[in-house]
Amino acid sequence: MRRERIVPVLVYTLILLGITACQETPEKKQDPEHTPVDRQKKFAIVIHGGAGTIVRKNMTPEREAAYREVLEKAIRTGYDILKNGGSGLDAVQKTVNVMEDSPLFNAGKGAVFTHEGKNELDASIMDGKTRNAGAVAGVTTIKNPVDLARAVMEKSEHVMLAREGAAAFAETQGIETVDPSYFYTEPRMKALERIKDQEKTALDHDQKTAFYDPYIQDAKFGTVGCVALDKNGNLAAATSTGGMTNKRWGRIGDSPVIGAGTYANNNTCAVSSTGWGEFFIRGLVAYDISAMMEYKGMTLCDAAREVIHKKLPDLGGNGGIIAVDHNGNMVMEFNTAGMYRASMDAKGALYIGIYDN
After folding, report:
1. Which of 30, 34, 133, 229 sits between 20 and 30 A of 42, alpha carbons compared?
2. Is the pLDDT of residue 105 over 90?
3. Annotated binding site for substrate
4. pLDDT of residue 55
């Protein structure tokens, strides 16, 4: 009797630890024999708004509530599209739009400033069914860069367009443009001024920052992203960012780089990254997770854990990812103190997180 009691407790504990470490929904651990037969009706969506040194003691209740409100609005936007039979591509695009329109996140309206006091935005989107992708980099007048990224994917022969060329293409596609002043927010400008006073490049949520400033903390990891599985079994991913505060010389990070900041493959998973872009590019983080699933037979949870907690730190980088696989298993993995994130499954179960629980 003693042995029979110990074993179930041990098994339950190990399962619980696995779920917590990967920030997954309990559905991930379902026995295949108990998985619904109609797998095509499964769908799921996950979002992030950046990872880094996000700790409770530095967050006012009002600011935390504001973040949670936008995160919930964003994920419910995508969830409703999926629930009504919409495509994963539509879901990730419209979800990212919500976060691009909020000044809280370093994307779209809330984009950080370059060394020259400008806003240069990047975005990408990928279709897991066709593995077609679109990306834009260094755009300065596009209200919602992810919209232009999708147009690049569907209406051009190319994968990535940048700067003036991207703007010219946007004009031919009727993509909404704004005056560059639209992206001006006083907190972001003050953050740039403080950074320049310190004569260094501030990195969002950087633990080396001597004082806490939520806007300076958004300079390196400030990115928004969404991944989704739709009812037709198709995966999609999208990522959008304003880049790094005080960046110079046309710097481009990982967000518009397919395989680094964004990746989707119906055979494996969809991934959106947030972190120190140079390291995500060097490690091809998003694709690496997919590749380990495809070639090593790893689960999404194990692959994400291997990349974020071992391979990325070994390079010197930090940050996080969100991902969903072709079975609807969801992962929100990060090696920082926190990551703005949310998820919803086909049953409508909502999870919103900020800190490392």
Report:
1. 133
2. yes
3. 251-254, 274-277
4. 85
Mean pLDDT of the chain: 87
Residue 316: burial class (beta carbons within 10 Å; 0-12, 13-18, 19+): exposed
Binding-site sequence positions:
251-254, 274-277
One-letter amino acid of 129: K
Give me the pLDDT at residue 266, please.
Answer: 99
Q: Phi-psi bin for 20: left (phi > 0), alpha (psi -120 to 50), beta?
A: alpha
Q: Find tokens 């992810």 and name the residue.
A: 146
Kind and range of the H or E run holding 103: none
Q: Which pair of structure tokens corresponds to residue 36?
A: 């619904």
106-140 per-position pLDDT tens digit? 999 999 999 999 999 999 999 999 999 999 999 99
- d(CA 20, CA 12) in angstroms, rounded, equals 12
- Cα 12 off chain centre by: 31
State how far the Cα of 18 lies from the Cα of 28, in Å rounded to an integer.
Answer: 10
Q: What's the whole-model pTM score?
A: 0.86
Tokens found for residue 166:
């991207």
Distance of CA 1 to the CA centre of its chain: 48
Under a CB-based contact definition with an 8 Å cutoff, are residues 278 and 321 in contact? Answer: no
CA 307 to chain centroid: 15
Largest distance between two CA atoms of the chain = 74
Which residue shows structure tokens 């935390």? Answer: 64
Residue 184 structure tokens: 């001006």
**pLDDT, greater one: 75 or 34:** 75
Sign, CA dihedral 217-303-22-103, equals positive
Q: Which of 162, 235, 222, 147 is nearest to 192 (CA)?
A: 222
Are 71 and 47 in contact by the 8 Å Cβ rule? The answer is yes
Neighbouring-strand partners of residue 44: 229, 345
CATH topology of domain 2-355: Glutamine Phosphoribosylpyrophosphate, subunit 1, domain 1 (3.60.20)
For the chain, give every domain's residue range.
2-355
pLDDT at 38 over 80: no
Strand order in the sheet with 350-355: 160-162, 133-139, 121-127, 235-241, 223-229, 44-52, 338-345, 350-355
Which residues does residue 75 pair with via DSSP β-bridges, in sequence order? none
pLDDT at 198: 79
